[in-house]
């Protein structure tokens, strides 16, 4: 699509919008959706042009409001499409354009109304929509679930997107994986290194390693190093929560070692051992804190057992002290 | 935009009568007459006319009368020119115009055909629009909005019709008519005549179907504007206005008509409205060029306070403020200092600070003093637990820091962070707050503390949370305060599940921050123990006494089933605890 190159970007969006409005007026009147592709094109161009215009506005120190305006226009387009009849299959495309705008603007709460229309209105049957639109839609709604920390739902949606995504489209796959991996990590599923390498998602590599090894120091370092990036795409908070899983792995390793040395007493781990281990990893935590972490692990079902305060011993359950997360988020 | 139908009379009800409509004089006529206060009139006039004008103006006691007089004289002059009597009339003996008693009046437009009508400034929101804070006076907001009162409506004018009719009825100037019409209800500023001005000019004003809604909106806006500028006729203020309006005389291209017609019902508003309008009108030198929002001299239209009182109670504004009650900046500085050093309770300070904030807003003072005021208020609010006031201040501060005004921005970004993480469930906000921290911010102690709190909360690490609570810099502890209850309850649940068979109360007291100070002072510890025990019982924990040591313990297994979160004891019947004044007083003093 040749985007109209504007010598001065700013004047074009209004005229584009006039064109768009005019087109929309007519479009409403047409019975069949023969002009759907054209409508989509208009929608796409409006968004791209508005983005460009906003960039230029920011550079010249003015208030970038074009994208927002594009958003309202597209809502109108959506309204025109959300009707009974053959036009409605085009609605998902416009929805995705709207998602892109809202995500870019940071006003993701506006997505809610569109989502509600798509998911609950009787006009739409989700299966009717074209696959590419469905993938995009699932990708964005999956991301929203990540923000809300509904990891199970996020997993479903992002996996759907992954499964149905065009295998040739590497960049899209990468985008999906960027969000799917943290979700999977939260429910205890670790990706293979080869996957990370293939899709150039190596920022997660150290995190995965720390989970495998129980290396808390590595986790903290990895989070620090990629902090900006991770904050920006919004997965930082999710990854932060992996801390407890790393602790768990550490305890498990200690347990394994103790089992080798002295199987009868293996299920009892002294607090001081834990403290020393952490010190060795370069992390200074006092006894109270370590005790607290252990209590949290038990509380959140990462470890089965109990803590005896007086003797300062973590007593593990004899059976399955480290239950698999089994797809249940921490 | 069609010409008004002839024969349609102007309804004489109060909302429609034009009180003042700007005059467009043909170029070959006097345009200097538009200037206020007897400024030099161009050469084509006889000297006697000039003196006549001056004599009339000098009799005027206030701006309203002055502008009324001016307009009348413009008419007279036009008439005279048209008649050809301009030079023949003996202006020296011409009777002086009767002054309108209460500055009311209707003015007629002259619609000289060859005058170029104005074009309106594009209707854009004024750049100085800010997010309204709860107490921000209506006046301020509306003034800002109305400066770009842009009537894009089609011009239809009944007033002009009437005027034309009057003109047609006679050649002679009927002063009597004028005087009478001037007595008409005040500031019945009608938009319509102004619209007529634009017929010649802009043709592409109407958008499909938008015209009428715009005009309605505008009428409302202008109504607000006029009513809110119902002002101050204090002599100092008038002098000031006069002085300010003189500033406009040299400047170019105002949209002279945009303020010229304002429908209004309130009489008192007239005075100031006219003043403002004459100011704006004075800016036009007839070429009709529009004035962009950015070019309007907001400063001249802003109130400059005169009150010298340091102490002033807060009163929510319902109309534009009287400069005599608004304190200028230097007084406000003193007032701030007074509040800072005052011994009185929070309610008093809050009240005073709100009043200071109001004075600052009304005078559009946005500088380091403003920042200091907000920071001070925010700190007091935090200490008193007044989250809503704190939030208001925080949002203003974020905005002011964003505009580059210096202040304790690091301290407040830490508070902001804590607020977002502890009081809202909005992860996106938290993410963006964290992402927007600068390198400098991440090194700041207060910010680091806030981030550490986040880390503790995120992993449920209550030990860390209360450790941080004890050594919180700044007012972080006040913000954490509001989360303490929740954290303690989570901790107790956690401990009940994971500790077996018991956990000593002494331990719980220590790690859950019940001892105020980390000192081994026995009295402190004892206090803490008691408090903790009470708290535990209030939350359903089952306590037992250890046989050997006699120490109090929590029976964790039993407790885990019986823990609950009690009703907050400051719950009020109407549901909003912060409205309970007694509670407030108890907390504040």
TrEMBL record, chain A:
It comes from the Eukaryota. It holds the Pfam family PCI. GO terms for cellular component: transcription export complex 2. GO terms for biological process: poly(A)+ mRNA export from nucleus; post-transcriptional tethering of RNA polymerase II gene DNA at nuclear periphery; transcription elongation by RNA polymerase II. One of its GO terms (molecular function) is RNA binding. Signal peptide: none annotated. Residues 135-321 form the PCI domain. This is PCI domain-containing protein. It comes from Aegilops tauschii subsp. strangulata.
From TrEMBL, chain B:
Residues 386-559 form the PCI domain. GO terms for cellular component: nucleus. This is PCI domain-containing protein. Residues 115-125 have a biased composition (Low complexity). Residues 108-140, 152-267 are annotated as: Disordered. The lineage of its organism: Eukaryota, Viridiplantae, Streptophyta, Embryophyta, Tracheophyta. PROSITE patterns: PCI. It comes from the Eukaryota. It comes from Aegilops tauschii subsp. strangulata. Residues 158-192, 200-213, 252-263 have a biased composition (Polar residues).
